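Let us work through a complete example step by step.
Step 1: write down the sequence.
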Amino acid sequence: SVDHTIAVWDMRSPTDIQLKRVILDGSRSVFAVELDHNYIYGADYGDIKVWDLFTLGLTHTLRGHSGFINCLQSRGDILVGGSDDKTVRIWDVESEGCLRVLQGHT
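Step 2: predict the structure and record it as tokens.
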């Protein structure tokens, strides 16, 4: 969010929801959030930060976009990010490598 945080909630049921922890993302606002079975992803201007879902510790940062990252989607070890730089980047989360850059998106 614009307060530079990601709130992690524990949803035991639709009526039993409790704040588990707030992750601080430094000096930037968070524009997109995604999670899978292992990680929480938070994106801002150019960077995607990756936190361990269980320890909530920052594991690494995926760098490559040159604009605000507006959307994230994960499937298995693959993460896709779409940015104002008019690219979609496909990442291998485990190796921290960019597998492909799709250009020409408007």
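Step 3: interpret the result. Residues 2 and 43 are 12 Å apart (CA to CA).
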